[in-house]
Amino acid sequence: MNRPVLDEKTRSAIEAFQRAEITEYHIYLKLATREKNPANSRILARIGQDEKLHYDFWKEYSGRDVQSDRLKVHFLCWVSRIFGLTFGIKLMEKGEERAQIRYAELVATIPEAQRIAEEEGDHERELIGMIEEERLRYTGSIVLGLSDALVELTGALAGFTFALQNVQIIAVSGLITGIAASFSMASSEYLSRASEGGSRNPLKSSFYTFVAYLFTVVFLVTPYFLFKNCFVALAVVVANVILIILLFSFYVSVAKDLPFWRRFWEMTAISLGVATISFGIGYFVRIWLGIEI
Fold first, then answer.
1. Where are the domains of the chain?
2. Is 255 exposed, middle or buried (0-12, 13-18, 19+ CB in 10 A)?
3. How distant is the alpha carbon of residue 229 from its chain centre?
């Protein structure tokens, strides 16, 4: 088969594709060996072999062997272990979307690049869609716990801050309120899932909701244990709320292919809107009851 004569820029691009393919091959291979679900392991191994075939394809044009990016291999395997298999794979997929644009630029020189681009796109996404992951099935329960805690506790802390203006009392009140609410929310989620039926286990759903709610409670109440000024603590709480929303919106947008900014602004507007209203209520309650602590 006659190969086209490649200029230095094209050769450099091809070697970059090679590095990406062999890196992803090693990532999928590692994930496959660590995966406990046999069906998931087979899918990962299959995608990995596809990546190796793509590497071999580009090698025929470059005529060179290229080493994998070991740092990226370790990083994405670590991310997949901590945040879930689907999140790690789809985070890696974001880079592949950019690569497909570059593939299109090479089609005129290397027509076969079109086939590689298609395999990297629809075929690979189809295989990834077949992966079963428990934590992703319970994302709705996690969202429920996080969003309710953000809205309810941020509002409660804002109201307590102006009404009470004592960091110790606010901290204890917020912690008691948050822990009680986390049990209440978990119970509601259990009863809701049990009555609906479906594939999701009610006990697991309630557990994920409880953990998400409790984590948010601890994260939001902690500033009142660290700062003597309740208004400084409240400012840190607001910053923590935005940080949690930012990180979780990014996670969901990657793992479930949802728009990031829309979800981020919606959750931020609701949480901070409720906090502002509660802050006002606390102000009027303090004046009306004449509270002095």
1. 8-132, 135-289
2. buried
3. 33
